[in-house]
Amino acid sequence: MNYDNLTLHTDKYQINMMYAHWLQGSHKEKAVFEVYFRKLPFGNGYAVFAGLERIVHYIRNLRFGDEEIAYLRTQEENYREAFLDELRQFKFNGNLHAVPEGTLVFPNVPLVRVEASVFEAQLVETALLNFMNYQTLVATKASRVKQVAPHDVLLEFGTRRAQEADAAIWGARASYVAGFHATSNLRAGMLFGIPTKGTHAHAWVQAHDTEEEAFRKYAEALPDQVTLLVDTYDTLKSGVPNAIKTARFLQSQGKRMNAIRLDSGDLAYLSQQARKMLDEAGFPDVLIVASNDLDENIIEGLKTQDARIDIWGVGTQLITAADQPALGGVYKLVAREKNGEYVPVIKISGNPEKVSNPGFKEVYRILNKKTGKAEADYLALQHEADIKNGERIKLFDPIHPYIHKYIDDYEAVPLLQAVFAQGALVYELPTLEQIRDYHAEQKQIFWPQYLRKLNPEVYRVNLSTEAWKLKMDLIHQHQG
Ligand SMILES: Nc1ncnc2c1ncn2[C@@H]1O[C@H](COP(=O)(O)OP(=O)(O)OP(=O)(O)O)[C@@H](O)[C@H]1O
Ligand SMILES: O=P(O)(O)OC[C@H]1O[C@H](OP(=O)(O)OP(=O)(O)O)[C@H](O)[C@@H]1O
Ligand SMILES: O=C(O)c1cccnc1
């Protein structure tokens, strides 16, 4: 069994549609799809785009091998052999544009645009959404943790509670993009170059006759990175005093104890008391790590309670995005080829927010030249020149168009970058460090009111007048 081939990591209906297109001879016609989400997760003001690196590897390796073809034959007797032969030849030959990983992104903004034969474009929907929805969700959750502890060390501890192995490693990577400093998962470290960190478990203490002995042996084994878990029996009566003894022992060896870890109880109270005990014993530089089902709200609460915690280990709540376990990113057809030309298409809904934005579009981030800050994201049809030439543009609310303003003095930064051109990779994948740095820079171009974690100001995502008119025309056409 070849577990690595992700070509059939798609919904059956995609292959069914590919088959039906092939039968009617429309499978080579071009289609343009956009990936976007409609609602921000966690009540946050922005999301952190992630998933592109995985998408790139996936697209490059798309192939229907013998196993895939043989399996498809067993799943649908209608598939003709000639169709399966066509699949054998399959390779992604389309164009794919995407915003760079680490970009701050907003509802209804196209994050990935696929322009390819309908055959190719249909196949990749499921996997693209799978990768981007999860990784963007976890990066956004991690970013919220980062917001409440911007100057502390953040460790990703989630693997044991993650929704299986892929989620653990890509979630670790997404957390690192958003500003975490290290992961406990060594495979994520090996694959992506994320720094790794680890303390020890209760099992280490339980495996010895006394806590003191356990600490001493651990310090002897790993004298350069000693972080002792102090809550196995009694944090303040036993754990911290034994840790202090170990710190003295290390000192006598010319070494320094790194930290203690608290993993239960009232973390505010215990950290304050432990801090006091460590300081009084002459160890003001021994740090305090906390873990135990932490999330951004508990960490924020602990900070307002003056908890003396330097390092946060965050697992379950982060890796599972526990308070919102899915991002609702969608993949919508916006244009299709007809008689050699693109015609825009729309998806109508009773809910105005769910009506899709038709047409082959570009995305611009409008920066105010005076302040350098982002004013809005602006979706324009591809041919529109005024925005490209920096001419005066009108920004208006697409649902309430009478709310509007004009702007002249702006820089329009195109967000979608070419990743594949006619099937060839034309994008130099940035290193993870570059992505993480770029993400940190991204936060600087937004006013803090868009970034706050509770009731943030809504960032504008606007359609150009032409894109808006096109949408209205298509709505009227379909209603008429
Ligand atoms: N001062 C505090 N303010 C707010 N939340 C806290 C504070 N101290 C701890 N917490 C959080 O409260 C929750 C309480 O955890 P839990 O019910 O597991 O108790 P515990 O003492 O950790 O028990 P256990 O030994 O089972 O781990 C955890 O999510 C923890 O992070
Ligand atoms: O709480 P999380 O945010 O998910 O962080 C990871 C948790 O995993 C470990 O606990 P576990 O009970 O699995 O083992 P241990 O306490 O015996 O180490 C660790 O002690 C953390 O509490
Ligand atoms: O290193 C740790 O302390 C750790 C790692 C994974 C999960 N919980 C704790």
TrEMBL record:
Annotated function: Catalyzes the first step in the biosynthesis of NAD from nicotinic acid, the ATP-dependent synthesis of beta-nicotinate D-ribonucleotide from nicotinate and 5-phospho-D-ribose 1-phosphate.
Pathway the protein contributes to: Cofactor biosynthesis; NAD(+) biosynthesis; nicotinate D-ribonucleotide from nicotinate: step 1/1
Alphabetically ordered keywords of this record: Glycosyltransferase, Ligase, Phosphoprotein, Pyridine nucleotide biosynthesis, Transferase
Domain Nicotinate phosphoribosyltransferase N-terminal: 8-133
Family indicated by similarity: Belongs to the NAPRTase family.
Nicotinate/nicotinamide phosphoribosyltransferase domain residues: 155-347
InterPro entries: Aldolase_TIM, N/Namide_PRibTrfase, NAPRTase_C, NAPRTase_N, Nic_PRibTrfase-Fam, Nic_PRibTrfase_pncB, Nicotinate_pribotase-like_C
Catalysed conversion reaction: 5-phospho-alpha-D-ribose 1-diphosphate + nicotinate + ATP + H2O = nicotinate beta-D-ribonucleotide + ADP + phosphate + diphosphate
Record protein name field: Nicotinate phosphoribosyltransferase
EC number: 6.3.4.21
Gene3D superfamilies: Aldolase class I, nicotinate phosphoribosyltransferase
